[in-house]
Structures are given as structure tokens and as C-alpha cells.
Amino acid sequence: MVVKYRGGTRLEVNVRTRGGHASNPDLGSNSILIAMNVYRDLWNTLMAGTSYENFLVTPTIMNCGEAENVIPSNCRLILDVRIPPGKSCKDVEAAINELRGKYGGLITISMRWCTEPVEVSINNTSARAVSRAIIKVLGKGPIPARKWGTSDMNDLALLTKNMVAYGPGDGAYSHSFEEYIFVDDYLRAIDIYKQAIVEFMNIYK
Fold it and tell me: Rounded to whole angstroms, how far apart are CA atoms 81 and 98?
């Protein structure tokens, strides 16, 4: 049962330079190198890392250059940023402003949207109902979990903290070509949700 998700945002970095002939050793006009430096600087500014408690900055899309023998004068880079508990969108905004000050007119950085991290109590009513349902259907207790990604729970937390996420599947394979789910797990999850409704109503009796 998932009670914690990290927040997230996506940044679009656009780099514009004078360009030039590839034989010219003017590395300062190479928009690809500048975009790579922006990525590294953002990583360092946020003190990003690979643990759950760290910011994570992942390049996901990069479109650069005009021709094979031309120093690229433009580059578009998309960075996926995940925000750990205890940090916020404001921390990302502060890092962006620092980079704007460093690179000046060479780059533009825009934050499309930002979702704050979320954590709900394992003892909220929905979590208790799903816990009881898991015990009755599977014959064993649930394990509280935290997700490395971001979900609807992050946004719904603005309305209520009475919720929990549950479902089958291995998160390590999410969005990969190897993503899968066992049919039996899927069918058992349906039974658990059916029972969870009963348990939820019993709690409110």
C-alpha cells in the first residue's frame, strides 16, 4: 500500500548561440555543450542524487543542431525533476533563477507545472479499509510503501488525506518495454477493492 509519493516537474531548457563551422574550436558557441552544463549545474544546485531523499534530475528529450558540420546554435533539453519529501517546488524555482543569473541571455528555462510531494497517514480510513481487505483476501498483512514517481494522489491531497494507493505490478518496470502484470494479481486486486468498500462502510457504522 502506497502512502508516499515524490513530487515532480518538467523543465524546458532552450539554448541559442551564434553557431559556426565545426572546424572552429569555439566550444563556447556549442549549444549542446551548454545544455549539458545546464543539466550538471541544476543537478549540483539541487544537490541531486539517486536516493529517495534526494532530488532527481533526469534528461528525457534533447533536440539540437542543424547539420553535421555546423556548431549547433540551438538546443532544446527537457529535464524531469523529482522532488523528495521535505522539499518543494519553490526549491526548484530558486535553482532555476540561479541558473538564469549564471547563463544570462544564452538560455531560457521554463517550468511547465509543478506537483508537490505527498504523504498520508497509514491510519487514515481508506488505508485501514484496504489493509483489512488485503488481510481477508490474501491472508497476510499489507506492507506500507513509497513510490519514486508522482501520481494523482499528489493533487488529490489538496482535497483530502483520506486515501491510499494499491495495485499489482512491479514498479521497477514502469514505462519500460518489460512492463507487465500477472492476470491472477489483477483479479485478486479486484477482489481486494470490492472487500475494501465493505470494510470502509463497516468503519463508518
Answer: 16
- In CATH terms, 2-115 corresponds, of 3.90.550.10, 3.30.450.30, 3.30.70.360, 3.40.710.10, to 3.30.70.360
**Residue 149 in contact with residue 44, Cβ under 8 Å?**
no
Q: How many residues does the chain have?
A: 205
CA nearest neighbour of 70 among 107, 36, 30, 33: 30
- pLDDT score, position 171: 80
pLDDT digits (tens, 9 = 90+) for 155-165: 999 999 999 99
**pTM of this structure:** 0.88
* 170 strand-pairing partners: none
Task: Say if CB 34 and CB 17 are below 8 A apart.
Answer: yes
The span from the CA of 163 to the CA of 119, in Å, is 10
